[in-house]
Design goal:
Layout: H1 2-6, E1 16-21, E2 25-31, E3 34-39, H2 48-52, H3 55-62, H4 70-75, E4 80-85, E5 88-95, E6 101-103, E7 106-108, E8 111-114, H5 118-123, E9 139-142
Parallel strand pairs: 1-4
Antiparallel strand pairs: 1-9, 2-3, 4-5, 5-8, 6-7
């Protein structure tokens, strides 16, 4: 909790898709390119050293299934997806081009883990960055601006 409150505010100017994850739910289900064993965020991942060992699971939780528009994501130039939990960025993923899938009107994609480099440091870093959640939405475009 102390780390969350001390996390700096996200100040990143390039487009991102931020997915706010809820608490973990065990659920085996198909995702683009594989099967996941659940979705959401496990409390033990709050510790940075533990979280780093579970980026694959966090990515599988983040990559599908969302009511989003592939056209909007591409039009905005979004290449990276951020997993957030309790208003703090936790992990960063790059959308693999050409891996989009749709299921029951919801969108999913395959991903690459981004766990180092300038973008990672600016968006996640060691302790994450705070983002204000949008009421009643699990996903948001960053920086937020009305769709054109």
């Amino acid at each position: 909790l102390i780390e969350e409150k001390a996390a700096p505010v996200l100040e990143y100017d390039e487009p991102l898709l931020i997915i706010s994850l809820g608490d973990w739910v065990d659920y085996e289900g198909a995702i683009p390119g594989g099967i996941r064993q659940g979705y959401g965020y496990k409390r033990e991942w709050l510790e940075s050293s533990v979280r780093k060992q579970h980026y694959q699971e966090i990515g599988e939780s983040t990559c599908s299934w969302w009511r989003l528009s592939q056209d909007s994501i591409e039009r905005r130039g979004i290449e990276y997806v951020v997993a957030a939990y309790r208003g703090v960025t936790r992990a960063l993923f790059r959308i693999k081009p050409g891996t989009w899938e749709s299921e029951d009107g919801r969108l999913g994609w395959q991903f690459d883990i981004v766990d180092s480099g300038d973008i990672f440091d600016q968006v996640v870093g060691e302790y994450g960055h705070r983002v204000e959640p949008k009421p009643q939405q699990n996903q948001r475009y960053w920086p937020w601006r009305p769709e054109t």
